[in-house]
Amino acid sequence: MNSLFIGIIVSLGIGGYFYYTTTQNELIELRSLNAAYETKFATQENTINTMEARYENQSNAIIEMAAKNQEIIAERDRYLGIFQRHDLGKLANAKPGLIEPRVNNATKDVFDSLEADSLFKFDPTP
């Protein structure tokens, strides 16, 4: 009977040892997976924060561009209103000395601004 109890205790000890080593190996593997997931989560969190910041910058840029666009449209409408209220052809025929210098100066200003806008501007800061 004692040999039976000794056999049971030895077999339980061997089984317990294998269970313990298997459990420890699983814990080591799970800890490494947990560390990998934490790194992945941190990377994703940084990516999300970066994307949110870029989205905010883009939204602000779009708002600024829309405001500038409204200003340009208002200026265009003002100029078109001037042309609609005045018959420049009739005025130029009646008073060429009055209209020609103004048209030439305005044309020069437009060409100068187009030239200035089309020049390559290098900005070394990103």
Distance between the termini: 85 Å
Silhouette:
rod-shaped
Class per helix and strand makeup: mainly alpha
> Biggest sheet: strands, sense, closure?
none
Portion of residues in beta strands equals under 5%
Helix count from the secondary structure assignment: 3
Account of the protein in words:
By secondary structure, this protein is an all-alpha fold. Helices cover 90% and strands 0% of the residues. The mean pLDDT is 86.
Write the layout of secondary structure elements.
Blueprint: H1 2-85, H2 88-94, H3 96-118
Helix pairs in contact: 2-3
Overview in brief:
The chain is an all-alpha fold and 126 residues long. 90% of the residues lie in helices and 0% in strands. It is built from 3 helices and no strands.
Structure characteristics:
single chain, 126 residues, mainly alpha, 2 domains, 90% helix, 0% strand
